[in-house]
Task: inverse folding
C-alpha cells in the first residue's frame, strides 16, 4: 500500500503544473508574483482586460518605480549632509592671546656690522640705476673699480636692468649690455608697459650645477626689485647668526612696551611672553597662557580690554628691509601659532588704534560629512611649530620638508626640521635657485601640499573691527610726550616724538559667544522613515513587500536561471555520454514540468483541488455523462384503483 501511495504521489507531481517560487520559468514566476503580491500596480497589469488598459498600468507602475528609485537616491546622496546651527551665549569670555611685533625686526644700529657689506652694495645699485648718492653728487664708477670691490652678493645674484621687456640687460657690475638666456618670471601681479623700459629691474638665478639653466625675475617697480634682492641676501646673513645673538639684537619688552593696562588694572612685561620670529625678531604675546593661567573679562568695551602704548623708534629702522613704520599685532588662541607675516594687522604710529572683537567658536563634522581633520594626526606632514594643528601650519611644514628634501637645507623664515640647517651661500650655493623653483611649484599647487593638508574641524575666531584716531591730540601732545619721556627717562635718552609712539586698544565689543556647529541633517531613523514614505506613496509598499521583492526578483529568479543552466548542462553531458556509448537518444517528455527536477522533494499527496487540475491521458476520449434511464421516469402510484373524482366525464 505504501509503495502504491508513493507511486501515485510521484505520478501526480510529474503531471501537476508548478506555481509559486518553484515555477520553472521566469514568466510564470513573474505572473505568480503579480497575482499574489501586496503591491497594487503589479496585480493590475495581469488582471486588466484589454491591451490599452494593461499598457497604461505598465507605464504607471514603471513610473512609480522610477520615482521611488530617484527619491531614494536623493535621500542617500543627502544622507551625509549637515545642517548649521548658531548658538549665542552670554558669559564671561576668556581673553585671547595678543601677539605684538615691531615691523622692524632688529635695531639697525645693532645690525650694521652684519649688514654693512650688503648695505654698501645696495647703495651702489641705487646710485648706478637711479643716481641716488645720499646727498652727494652722482659719481660714475669705472668698471675696474666695480670689479675691485666685487662681492659675493653680485656673484650669486647680479642686479640687472632689462630693456623693452627683452633679454637684453645692463649689468650692474660692468655697466655693459649683454644678452642673457632663461625663463622670465614677472614677480608683480601685472606689468603695464608705460613706454619707460628703464624701470624694469630684476635679477638672474642660475643652477650652480648647470649654468645654462637660469631663471629671470623681473619687477615693474625698482622698489620691489631692490627689496626682494635685499631680502634674499638678508636671509642668507641672518641664517648664519646664532639665535641668542639675534634675540639680543632685537627689541626687549622694556624697549617696545611703554605702558600697559588690562581691565583697568596696570600690567607690565611679566604679563608678556617673548618668542623669536625669524622675520619680525622678538615678538611679545600678552596672555599666552604659558603659566597655566588664562585671563578673562566680564565686561565689554574699550575700558576693560588691553591698552598698551608702544615705542616704535622709527629712527633705528633698516631703510632697505622695511618701508613702513608701526607694529603688527595678531589676536589668536593660546594654542595657535601666530603667523604675523600672513594675517597680522598693522597699526600706525601717531594714532590710537581701537580693535573691537567678536568671539566665534566653530566646529565642523569630520568624515564622511566633510574633509576636515580633528587633530592633524591623520595628515602625513610633521608639525614643526609645536602648536595645535591648523591649515597654515600644515602648509608651511609641508613646504619646509620639500625644501629640505629638494635643496638640502631649510628656508630661513620657517622652523627647522630635525637634523636640518638653514640655507646659506657657503654650504648651499644653489639654495636660492632651488628655493625660487620650489616656491613656484608651491604657488601653482604642484608640490601636493594643498592636496595633503586639510582644514581643522574645530577652531576659534575673533572677528576684528578696527578704528583709528589721531593720537596724541594737538593740545595734549606736549605734556603727554613730556610725561612719557620722564617715565622712561632711564631707558630712553631723548625726548619722545609722536611718530615713535603707537596707542593700541584691544577689547570685546560684547560678551556674546557665538557657537557655530554642524549637525547631521539625517539619521538612520529619518532615512528609513523617508524610504517608507516614498514606498508607501508610490507603490503602497511596506517592508514586507520589499523583502518579498528581494526574494522573488533576486533569490527565486536566480534559482530559476541556475536551475535552467544546470538542466542544460546535465542534458548536454548525458547526450555526450550517450553518443560515446552509441545508445539511441530517448525522446524527452515536453509536458514534464518542475516536479521532474530533483529540487522538488515535497512528498505530500496532492489535495482534491489540485487533483482536479490533472491533465487527461492522451489518446483517450473525454468521459461523458451517461444518458438517463428513461424507464425510471415512469410514475408509480400507491393506489390500486383510480379514484372516482379523477375519471373523465365521458366515461360516465
Result:
Amino acid at each position: 500500500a505504501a509503495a502504491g501511495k508513493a507511486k501515485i504521489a510521484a505520478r501526480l507531481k510529474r503531471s501537476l503544473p508548478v506555481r509559486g517560487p518553484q515555477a520553472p520559468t521566469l514568466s510564470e514566476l513573474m505572473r505568480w508574483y503579480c497575482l499574489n503580491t501586496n503591491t497594487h500596480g503589479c496585480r493590475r497589469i495581469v488582471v486588466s482586460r484589454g491591451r490599452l488598459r494593461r499598457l497604461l498600468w505598465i507605464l504607471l507602475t514603471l513610473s512609480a518605480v522610477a520615482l521611488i528609485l530617484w527619491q531614494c537616491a536623493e535621500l542617500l546622496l543627502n544622507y551625509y549632509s549637515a545642517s548649521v546651527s548658531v548658538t549665542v551665549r552670554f558669559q564671561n569670555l576668556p581673553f585671547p592671546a595678543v601677539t605684538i611685533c615691531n615691523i622692524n625686526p632688529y635695531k639697525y644700529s645693532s645690525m650694521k656690522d652684519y649688514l654693512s657689506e650688503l648695505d654698501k652694495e645696495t647703495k651702489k645699485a641705487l646710485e648706478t640705476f637711479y643716481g641716488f648718492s645720499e646727498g652727494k653728487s652722482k659719481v660714475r664708477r669705472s668698471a675696474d673699480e666695480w670689479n675691485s670691490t666685487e662681492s659675493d652678493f653680485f656673484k650669486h645674484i647680479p642686479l640687472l636692468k632689462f630693456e623693452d621687456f627683452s633679454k637684453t640687460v645692463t649689468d650692474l657690475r660692468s655697466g655693459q649690455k649683454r644678452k642673457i638666456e632663461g625663463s622670465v618670471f614677472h614677480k608683480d601681479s601685472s606689468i603695464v608697459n608705460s613706454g619707460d623700459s628703464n624701470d624694469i629691474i630684476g635679477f638672474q638665478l642660475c643652477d650652480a650645477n648647470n649654468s645654462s639653466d637660469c631663471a629671470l625675475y623681473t619687477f615693474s617697480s625698482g622698489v620691489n626689485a631692490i627689496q626682494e634682492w635685499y631680502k634674499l641676501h638678508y636671509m642668507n646673513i641672518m641664517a648664519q647668526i646664532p639665535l641668542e645673538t639675534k634675540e639680543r639684537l632685537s627689541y626687549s619688552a622694556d624697549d617696545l612696551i611703554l605702558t600697559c593696562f588690562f581691565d583697568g588694572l596696570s600690567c607690565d612685561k611679566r604679563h608678556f611672553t617673548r618668542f623669536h620670529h625669524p622675520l619680525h625678531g622678538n615678538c611679545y604675546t600678552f596672555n599666552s597662557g604659558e603659566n597655566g593661567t588664562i585671563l578673562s573679562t566680564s565686561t565689554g568695551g574699550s575700558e576693560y580690554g588691553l591698552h598698551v602704548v608702544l615705542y616704535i623708534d622709527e629712527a633705528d629702522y633698516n631703510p632697505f628691509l622695511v618701508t613702513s613704520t608701526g607694529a603688527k599685532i595678531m589676536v589668536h588662541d593660546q594654542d595657535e601659532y601666530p603667523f604675523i607675516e600672513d594675517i597680522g594687522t598693522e597699526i600706525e604710529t601717531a594714532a590710537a588704534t581701537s580693535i573691537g572683537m567678536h568671539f566665534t567658536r566653530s566646529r565642523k563634522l569630520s568624515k564622511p560629512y566633510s574633509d576636515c581633520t580633528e587633530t592633524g594626526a591623520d595628515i602625513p606632514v610633521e608639525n614643526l611649530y609645536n602648536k595645535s594643528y591648523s591649515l597654515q601650519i600644515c602648509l608651511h611644514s609641508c613646504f619646509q620638508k620639500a625644501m629640505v628634501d629638494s635643496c638640502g637645507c631649510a628656508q630661513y623664515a620657517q622652523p627647522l626640521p630635525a637634523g636640518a640647517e638653514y640655507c646659506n651661500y657657503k654650504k648651499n650655493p644653489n639654495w636660492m635657485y632651488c628655493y625660487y623653483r620650489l616656491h613656484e611649484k608651491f604657488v601653482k599647487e604642484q608640490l601636493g601640499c594643498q592636496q595633503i593638508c586639510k582644514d581643522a574641524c574645530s577652531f576659534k575666531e575673533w572677528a576684528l573691527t578696527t578704528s583709528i584716531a589721531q593720537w596724541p591730540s594737538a593740545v595734549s601732545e606736549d605734556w603727554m610726550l613730556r610725561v612719557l619721556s620722564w617715565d622712561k627717562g632711564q631707558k630712553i635718552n631723548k625726548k619722545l616724538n609722536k611718530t615713535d609712539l603707537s596707542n593700541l586698544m584691544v577689547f570685546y565689543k560684547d560678551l556674546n559667544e557665538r557657537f557655530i556647529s554642524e549637525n547631521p541633517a539625517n539619521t538612520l531613523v529619518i532615512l528609513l522613515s523617508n524610504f517608507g514614505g516614498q514606498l508607501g506613496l508610490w507603490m503602497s509598499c511596506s517592508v514586507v513587500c520589499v523583502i518579498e521583492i528581494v526574494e522573488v526578483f533576486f533569490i527565486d529568479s536566480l534559482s530559476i536561471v541556475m536551475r535552467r543552466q544546470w538542466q542544460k548542462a546535465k542534458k548536454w553531458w548525458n547526450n555526450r555520454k550517450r553518443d560515446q556509448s552509441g545508445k539511441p537518444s530517448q525522446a524527452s517528455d515536453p509536458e514534464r514540468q518542475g516536479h521532474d527536477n530533483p529540487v522538488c522533494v515535497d512528498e505530500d499527496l496532492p489535495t482534491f483541488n489540485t487533483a482536479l487540475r490533472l491533465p487527461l491521458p492522451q489518446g483517450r476520449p473525454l468521459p461523458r455523462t451517461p444518458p438517463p434511464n428513461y424507464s425510471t421516469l415512469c410514475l408509480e402510484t400507491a393506489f390500486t384503483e383510480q379514484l372516482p373524482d379523477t375519471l373523465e366525464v365521458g366515461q360516465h
